Amino acid sequence: MQSGRRGATLIFLGILALASCGRAKPNAPSVPPGVNTLSDGLVFTRADSTVILMGKTYAVCCSTWEAGAIDREALKVFFYDATKRHSYWKLFVIPDIALAASVFALPTPGPGQGAVAITVTDVSTGNTASSDRPGSEGTITIHALGCGPPTRLDTTVDATLGSQIAGGPAIHVRGRFVATTYTNPISCVFSF
Q: What is the pLDDT of residues 154-169, one digit of tens each?
């Protein structure tokens, strides 16, 4: 009886091992669990094509959009510079809306009212531009997202963001952003 159980157990483990073979991509990098990976390919430019330098400190996390004001879960990205010498940007995505479609046209609805919103502040000029402002156009494509753990986002942006200053210049953003994060240097309580 015991040898029958042992044999069945060995067969089961063999089948389980065979079933798990071939699932990993052959050329996928091996990243230990719990390690943040990030590829920030977004480039922000002024109307004269000057690149706006962004901070390199980031948070990619999920929490309430803005507790007490917009009580919806949001996947939040915040790139900033603690010294405030470089500009910063934020991208918020509402997962339960973003799953319904993958490409979102600008202008977007106001903060918390649509699937996605992006804003950038150019520290050198004092200009802030957002996806919900007049003059915004283009697209934000959400390829993948999840609030995990880990928090994951893969998005492409090809857009012009309208200035929040009346008559102010637009800011262009183009590129791809991909992140998988387990930890962040700041709390996820920041607002849009």
A: 999 999 999 999 889 9
